[in-house]
Design goal:
heterodimer, A: 141 residues, alpha+beta, seven-stranded antiparallel sheet, 7 strands, 20% helix, B: 173 residues, Arc Repressor Mutant, subunit A, 2 domains, two-stranded antiparallel ribbon, 9 helices, 2 strands, globular
Chain lengths: 141, 173
């Protein structure tokens, strides 16, 4: 498998596994690959009474890229948004904090604030449960 | 009580051990031993081994024997066929052609916008940017491009053999 590693196939597998986990998640009402033609991300609609936040029309958008080699770090983002706010846990190169893992939250017109974040999970399936367990504690509170 | 990382209790509450073993084993980037998959899926090794063997027999996973034990990895053909089946369930031939056009159009847009012929060529540009933000944008577009090409290849497969696949699919439902 290492010899035949295909980053797009590995990324697609991860997105499918995350989609399956989101379908099992009590917070989620619907989830689908988006855009339908390219399937480069997942978009989940969240049930207002189950997610521990107050906003209307809440969605969770998931990006995942498995890395160019089997040993490369994956690049990913789990980003929540509703009509009033958006925040998310990301893992990719950026200039705001040390390391790849970070939490970012939009605060009014001031743009995003960032904080370093360490992920516990190593696999995409567990990560979605880890991230959703953090929903009720954004850093602006 | 075991002190699990955040989310693990909810994951265990809403999934079976088999779900978690399958989910972890189908997302590894390289072949992994039972111990690794058991740890990641939060199940006992014997439980993981039983489920992994079942997934091998279902052609979901590949198993390779090594001196220090078996390694398990996803079968790329299974992933491809799952995606193919989803597309055939959700779209007729015209719908698949529309999706193909949508993917092709996006890829052509990237080729024009970045003056690049492939995601790899675009990635080389990431080293030439002025800011981390530009680097990030280029790397993300290259990743999206790779995923779109993968999706496009399956869409083309679905359209080319639509009559065969749809006959087999409807016969199986």
């Amino acid at each position: 498998m290492t010899d035949s590693y295909n980053p797009s196939e590995a990324s697609h597998r991860a997105l499918r596994a995350i989609q399956q986990e989101l379908e099992r998640h009590p917070m989620v009402t619907t989830v689908q690959g988006f855009p339908d033609g390219e399937f480069t991300e997942l978009r989940a609609n969240l049930a207002p009474e189950r997610r521990g936040t107050d906003g209307e029309n809440a969605t969770l958008t998931v990006h995942w890229f498995a890395g160019e080699t089997p040993d490369a770090r994956p690049e990913f983002a789990f980003h929540y948004s509703d009509e009033e706010t958006d925040f998310g846990w990301h893992h990719h190169e950026q200039e705001h904090v040390d390391g790849w893992g970070h939490f970012q939250e939009r605060t009014g017109d001031a743009g995003y604030i960032h904080e370093p974040h360490t992920f516990h999970a190593q696999n995409p399936s567990q990560l979605i449960w880890e991230v959703t367990s953090l929903f009720s504690t954004p850093i602006s509170e | 009580m075991t002190d699990h990382p955040p989310g693990v209790e909810a994951w265990k509450e809403h999934t079976t051990a088999f779900d978690r073993v399958q989910s972890v084993a189908t997302t590894v980037s390289k072949p992994r031993p039972v111990s690794y998959i058991a740890d990641e899926a939060h199940v006992a090794e014997n439980t993981a081994r039983d489920h992994l063997e079942r997934l091998v027999s279902l052609n979901v996973l590949l198993k390779t024997e090594h001196d220090d034990g078996a390694l398990y990895s996803p079968d790329p053909l299974h992933t491809r066929l799952q995606t193919l089946r989803d597309l055939l369930e959700e779209h007729d031939r015209d719908g698949l052609i529309d999706l193909k056009a949508e993917a092709q159009s996006k890829i052509e847009e990237w080729e024009t916008d970045y003056n690049a012929d492939s995601p790899d060529e675009l990635r080389t540009r990431a080293a030439e940017t002025d800011t981390a933000s530009q680097t990030r944008d280029i790397r993300k577009t290259a990743s999206d491009w790779e995923l779109a090409l993968y999706r496009l290849s399956i869409l083309e497969d679905a359209i080319e053999d639509y009559d065969t696949y749809s006959t087999d699919f409807w016969a199986s439902t």
